[in-house]
Specification:
Layout (H helix, E strand, L loop, with lengths): L7 E2 L4 E5 L16 H23 L8 H23 L1 H4 L3 H22 L2 H13 L6 H16 L6 H27 L3 E4 L9 H5 L9 E4 L2 H10 L3 H11 L4 H21 L5 H6 L7 H37 L9 H15 L4 H4 L5 H16 L1 E6 L10 E7 L5 E8 L11 E6 L2 E2 L5 E2 L1 E6 L15 H19 L19 H6 L6 H6 L12 H9 L5 H18 L7 H13 L26 H20 L4 H12 L7 H9 L6 H6 L4
Parallel strand pairs: 2-5, 7-11
Antiparallel strand pairs: 1-2, 3-4, 5-6, 6-7, 8-11, 9-10
Amino acid sequence: MRAAFRVYRSKRVLLTRAMSTPHPLFHLHWKDITKESIARQADELVRTSTSRFDSVGRLQPSEVTFDNTIKVLADNKASYETRRALVDFPHHVHPNKDIRNASTEADKKLSEFDVEMSMRQDVFNAVAAIKEKGVGGSSPETERLVDRILVLGKRNGLHLSEEKQQKVKEIKKRMSDLSISFSKNLAEENTTLEFAESELVGLPEDFIQGLEKAADGKRCVSLKYPHYYPAMKRARIPKTRQRLEKAFLSRCKDANTKILEELVVLRSELSDVLGYKNHASYITELRMAKTADAVQKFLAELGERIKPLRDRELDVFLKYKSSECDEFGFENDGRINGWDVRYYMNMVEEKEYSVDQQKLKEYFPLDAVTKGLLGIYQDLLGLKFSEVSNPDVWHEDVRLFSCTDAECKDLLGWFYLDLHPREGKYGHAAVFGLQPGCLLSDGKRQPAIAAMVANFTKPTAEKPSLLLHDEVVTYFHEFGHVMHQICAQADYAMFSGTRVERDFVEAPSQMLENWCWEKESLARMSKHYKDGSSIPEEMMEKLVASRNANTGVHNARQITFGLFDQIIHTGGKCDVVDTFSKVQRDVFHVPASSGTSFPATFEHLAGGYDAQYYGYLWSEVFSADMFHSRFKKEGLLNPKVGNDYRTLILKPGGSRDGADMLRDFLGRESSQDAFLKSKGLL
């Protein structure tokens, strides 16, 4: 059930419904997909792309020109990535398991093909010849493209012997297959636990009644986010939380632990073949951090700063635990365990800041949040969104919008919103770039297309989908990535959208999270689902004041993940479960739960964040500086600042270095001061 999306008027724009007439540069069509069509399209994609690479590879050095080399490769990438989305995106979201399986197989095939094409010595030589000739009169972005192709070629070993190149190719193909399997295992995992209602004490009655009943009358609690996180925050009985956490951190334990350990070994072998000290050094070479040592120093220094705050917060948790054990007769082991953390974090918010998250979420029905969020982004960035009627989508829950410039009316792109959980769907919140925004060979601009995928509770006949405040923050954050994908105006697909340095990519979205803690914007994204009333002023003030609740524990946890990632990627073979347990004990001061494998569920490390999870904290430095130095001083919805942000941070995509974009936006070099103040550390 979806409530009607009403016309929304703001100071600058109008949110309307757009007709479903297809645009000539909209190349994604989902309704007719079959497992056979996926396999067929994958084969065709390999054939056409190979032909274009061959046309470049057969050129002699004297024959290469911009048109027959760089333009051919750029055009191929622009079309290849869109057509590939039709083949490999369905395995994340399609409701039909046969189609998901076919998409997974096609993804493996195309990933192997990508490795083959990235290792084309003849194409590398042609681009090297272009570099040697000079790209005559080309733009800085074209020069950056040529340099990037050559750097990536060397990082693939194309300057090495054929024997070493073959080794690189074998390793990369194996890593690709393993990464896809890791993600597929988690997506297909569907464990459900059964609890008597007496075991669910503390959870809201409507939550319990919304759970399916087993044959024996017990309630079924899945490990999907809309069940797991509310249960871990509110279930009073420790053994209930312990059982849930053990199951959650045991998902795909055997298969994915082995996969991650093999990936760690393969990454170490690859960095060795390519002449790098370790995998972390290989990764950071093209990041803002530049070196693994810089990352280690950043995490270590932040870890030292955060210790006193972490310890004070854990002591508060222990006091609450002791009191609860005395009151309800629970056994007290005298320590905070993994299954205690979210429960006592929630208790701190409720007791010390009087924030009742269950009451608060009544003011965040999904439709109201969506309406307010879209309005804020339109006002802030000077955009207009129009919902497409009768869209061609992969599931009935999915909505499609066009995005145009509010002033000049130019089409920038489209975005999908796929916000509710279902079996086999990608289990986290993420944004997928489906069509790169870039220039085509005929001079026309291909608009960008992106999809935001999330798992917010689905509405029922009795109640709309109600979001916890941290889900509102997630929504705002992920939609920031959508805007980055669509507002970027790079010439080449290689630099489209969020293709900035990985340790900068989160900064624009993290910066936008601040709107979820400001009264002005919160008022626009909320209304009580029953009577439409606003969040009471007292509740709003308590929510805003609670922002720094549990800062020490939260950041110690993030540092744990970042350090674990760095440790396993600066060595070789290791026991990832044992390594994680040691890091968590030393940094977080909360023991890893016996018999579990958090690494088996750590999808970031198989999905492209290997040796770069630190980027979330690293980029937060820049996000804090951008917000406090410009928006907080000059106005949350100041059109001048919003335009500067869109023009200087989002528009370049990856065509410029993150440090240069920041300098232009801030008018100076970036500083850590705002970040440290936001954590209460300065």
